[in-house]
Design a protein that fits this description.
About 0% of the residues lie in helices and about 45% in strands. By secondary structure, the protein is mainly β.
Length: about 80
């Protein structure tokens, strides 16, 4: 399984609900966190970074910078 999220297109350049082709891979980012996995929250920060929090056995957060296509992860275990 993979966690996938996408951003809508910039207003004025396409129809509402269209994906932004400059984000990730044609408007989508897929992060394979292991199975089973689920996303519980996503936030777009003021600096443009995206934070997705969820779990894959333990709690995990994925940070993504759409302008650089880099990805950093950390895991906090609840053992």
């Amino acid at each position: 399984m993979a966690l996938a999220f996408s951003l809508g297109a910039t207003p004025g350049f396409s129809w509402p609900g269209d994906l932004d082709p400059t984000f990730g891979n044609r408007g989508k980012v897929v992060s394979d966190l292991g199975a089973p996995e689920e996303a519980n929250a996503a936030v777009l920060q003021a600096d443009g970074r995206i934070v997705v929090a969820g779990r894959s056995g333990s709690w995990e957060a994925t940070f993504s910078n759409p302008s650089e296509n880099d990805e950093k992860r950390f895991t906090a275990r609840s053992d």
